[in-house]
Design goal:
Elements lengths: L1 E8 L7 H12 L5 E8 L11 H10 L4 E5 L3 H9 L8 E5 L10 H15 L4 E4 L2 H6 L5 E3 L22 E6 L8 H9 L6 E6 L6 H13 L4 E5 L3 H10 L2 E3 L9 H8 L4 E4 L4 H4 L6 E4 L4 H13 L1 H15 L5 H16 L1
């Protein structure tokens, strides 16, 4: 059995795309003759976790790991330790959900973190990158795209009628964080006729408390037109996908956008901003709508058209489902990761 240490930051059970990616791979790794053990830096303010690099590598050695997968969220903190030859004597591979400097943080932190990230990547054998859009941004030679799976859950929980007496059900699955741009979505949705659609929001409402409060206030003003599902289990999310009519997430930055591919696999047209990886996943007007970031009027118009025209939704649904057949399953993603690590260990 190949033992891999996945070095990350804080609680690996955090409900974000990167952490969920790691957990799905860890769950499936034994099918491919491997086990993944999580080793975490403490969630201290930047750059204090740098002080724990030695302890992290000691834990890697104690767990008997034959390779390290280094999460891009904590790459900077291991850089000096790799430079002085303290890499636990095993090959190191990066697993990237963000580029050097991170995503959605202050400018000063990004400027300090970026060179540390690059320093650490200089000591890695391969960089496993979560999307083609991120891969295109990186100027490292040893990179490989390993996209997340699009299969959601084997069992599904029925959420009931999501339309709630209206013509269509819109779904957004995302934590309430500024980067997800819920406020723009709610503003666009508020311009629709009240009878037209019900909007369902699923995700961690405490991910960004200050921003979440703004979202909650906007939601309250919209009354029963918006339904809050808060944190959901996989089976609940799968049920929401299967019962909704349209998926919408006007995120300002998605390294991959797993929720889009999951929604497409369930036959949902997807709507979002033309940022990050979304233009790599869908073609505007075919699998959904891709709109210029910040175009709230355009977003509202696109949603209204999809709600009013079931025939258009049906065409886009069929195209989305067909497109999603080309996306990997989580088992295929896991197999590629394990195979790549095994080659570096050999």
């Amino acid at each position: 059995m190949l033992t891999i240490a996945l070095v990350t930051l804080g609680d690996p059970k955090t409900l974000t795309g990167g952490y969920l990616y790691h957990w799905r791979v860890a769950e499936l790794a034994p099918r491919h003759g491997a086990q993944i053990k999580f080793v975490s830096f403490p969630s201290w303010p930047f750059p204090l976790p740098l002080l724990r690099g030695g302890k992290v590598l000691e834990e890697v050695r104690r767990c008997g790991a034959q390779a390290i997968l280094l999460d891009s969220i904590c790459t900077a903190y291991l850089a000096p330790w790799l430079a002085i030859g303290q890499g636990a004597g095993v090959p190191v591979l990066g697993i990237l959900h963000q580029g050097p400097g991170g995503i959605g943080q202050s400018g000063w932190k990004a400027r300090l973190q970026a060179p540390l990230d690059r320093w650490a990547y200089g000591y890695t054998r391969r960089l496993l990158v979560a999307s083609q859009s991120l891969c295109d941004e990186l100027d490292f030679p040893h990179k490989l795209v390993v996209a997340p799976g699009c299969d959601v859950a084997e069992s599904v929980e029925d959420p009931g009628d999501l339309k709630r007496g209206r013509e269509a059900a819109l779904l957004c699955v995302a934590n309430w964080a500024r980067m997800k741009d819920h406020l723009s979505l709610l503003e666009a949705f508020s311009r629709l006729p009240e009878h037209l659609a019900t909007l369902h929001l699923a995700g961690d409402e405490d991910a960004d408390p200050a921003y979440g409060q703004q979202v909650a206030q906007k939601v309250e003003r919209l009354g029963d037109r918006v339904v809050r599902h808060k944190k959901c289990r996989r089976e609940q999310v799968a049920g929401l996908y299967q019962s909704a009519d349209v998926f919408v997430l006007p995120s300002l930055r998605e390294t991959y956008g797993t929720v889009y591919s999951e929604a497409m696999a369930c036959g949902l047209p997807c709507v979002g901003w033309d940022t990050g990886n979304l233009p790599h996943l869908i073609e505007d007007g075919v699998h959904g709508r891709v709109l210029p970031a910040g175009d709230i009027a355009g977003l509202s118009s696109a949603l209204e058209q999809l709600c009013r025209e079931p025939a258009l939704r049906a065409r886009m649904s069929q195209a989305a489902r067909q497109r999603a057949r080309a996306f990997p399953s989580w088992d295929e993603t896991t197999a590629l990761i394990v195979e790549t690590v095994r080659k570096e260990v050999a």
